[in-house]
Records
---
Amino acid sequence: MRHSGGPQVTRRALLGSAAAAGLAASGCSSAPRKPAAPAPPDPQTVLLTSLITGKEQLVSLYGRAVAALPARAAALEPFRQRHAAHLQALRALLPAGSGAGTFPASPAPPASPSASPSERPSAVSVGALRDAERRAASARPAQMATASPALAQLLASIGACEAVHVVALGRVRD
């Protein structure tokens, strides 16, 4: 039976128009696609990176103090070594490939006696070390509030050590 009322659509025409509609619906265009937004950084990695940076600064500060206070170097070196150990423990928790934590754990080299004043490390007093330790220890509770359980436990230990450093540095004179 044939319909005699309107235009006839062939099977080939119907398939061709369906294919064209499919291409149009799939977004086939010459405009480049926008790249997907990068995933936000992991909060634990951000915290760890910040902690590592702070520890790198403390290790550096002690290295400068050891160089600037040669008579106190033997007393200050154990403090620097403990901070270097903290730095190593923090780096061990950092996910592989995060790119943070490139600071060497060794102390700054002492200034040579013939070095000009501008080449010598800036002087760091024992009082400045105590202040840095006090600031670091006081920051730990807030950091622990957002840390994973393993990192919070490490931060509690690090904070306790820093608090003891404040007291112990009171016995070291400039």
---
Amino acid sequence: MAQTALRRWWEHFKLDTEDVPKLLGAHTLARVEAQVAASEKLHSGEIRVCVEASLPGELLRRGVRSRERAIELFSSLRVWDTEVNNGVLIYVLLADHAIEVLADRGLSARVPAAQWAALVATMRDEFRKGAFEAGLTQAVATVGHLLHEHFPVADEATANPNELPNAPWVL
């Protein structure tokens, strides 16, 4: 096994779900949940945040990378299943220091790849400084702005059903 593969296994071995609140901050997940809920009142989109400490051993053995895992979660968390096809997954894999943002076809067709890359770069910069909450909240704000720009709620009286949970999914 190569040195980098051993290092990856070690990084995944030493982190688990209980480490997520410790690394992100005790109240970060609750604040992100509230921010997602507030954002979704302004547009018809759905934002789903998923923070995974480490991959299960079977996925590591198969060599699954963050993008592949994000696509798997995009499906299993039903982000692709919103009425207007405008769900967005913000995925963080802590052990790999990886960030993936996946948008369903309704929004991805309207937002250039460079804009998504800039969002990820901003998150990465904040994470490198240890500012996990700032990185996550900036990402949610940016995604919310894009959804509001392309899928605004017609007026405050218009019902916008919450199709997906607002709480970050922690694995």
---
Amino acid sequence: MEQRLNENECSAVGVGRMMLKIERGTSMKRISFLSVVAAIVVSLLAFSPHLSGQTDEKASPNYEVKIPAGYRDWKLISVAHEAGNLNDIRAILGNNVAVKGYRKGNLPFPDGTIIARLAWKYVPSEENNKVFAREQSFVAGSPTNVQFMVKDSKRYSATGGWGFAQFTNGKPLNEAEPKTCFACHEPARARDFIFTVYAP
């Protein structure tokens, strides 16, 4: 027996077919879009060591400290300007363990604390100073180096529980330099060898 579709049923079938075509088109677009996104993510992951400062270079001499992954995303502890021969501007960052230690104010810092010091040339901002009509604005210029202090009271017992490292362009500094780090931090023994105070 031949069945005839009424007008409403015909419309429903037509709409259904159209929706199916749209869904197929949308699915193809989604697949294409997701393929592009996946390619971008893979590319970013391939270059992420360079973006984060992570390097495949060997660890620092003496203390065997490596550049921690993702350190640029750590919380800010303070900033500083070092005048004289260095004439740099610095950001001091800490991992979660370091930040909790700073906030609680309990010394010594717990094992697992890592403090990073990033330094850049301290330079006048030509763009900003044009607005002010005088040289009063200074900004971070080219990077100079990155330093780390890593707390491990057993591993670094001979140096107050701290391991030290300095990297320039992702490469560890020569062997002689990190040996002097602990001697430099000795005057801050009362604050667990840390100079930087947590900025309010």
---
Amino acid sequence: MSSPHGRSAPIGGRLRLRLKEIGAFGVVGGIAFVVDIGLFQLLYGHLGVGAVTAKTLATLVSMAVAFLGHRAWSFAHRDTTAVRRSFTLFALINVTTLVLGAAIIWFVRYPLGQESLLVVQTANIISIGINSVFRYLAYRRWVFPAVADPDAAEKPQVPADGAVADDGAVPPAGRDETVPAVTRRVR
């Protein structure tokens, strides 16, 4: 079924699914964020653990929370590969973002000489924001890939104008001009 603008109806469904996915990613990320910030606050602000060590420990705990939430909810509709594989990729992506986050904390704390909990925590929050965009894209691409459709190879690609030859064959997408107008019909 096509809309008046030539777009197929499934686009609306894909958009709704993407918005739901982003919303769930945000909720799970929000919970992981609270865990990260709270644990960092506890370790660095109250227990005297070094800033980079506190950031590392807080990130590792929030990473475990995030993996479970994303696997069970945010990306549950996508292909769930083996837990070992998906967690390994998840961990690699998060180690990369951990290094970036720790580097930002280190830069603010040591070269810039900022000791204030407020300043260091602000740098922490900024690093989490930067890393969240990268993580969302990487999770979708590598950790929780799109479900492979085994029937996709068997389904004919119907052009946007719905042109089909008299014998039922579907012309290649974008090349229906090769089929004479006499043999084309619109459903």
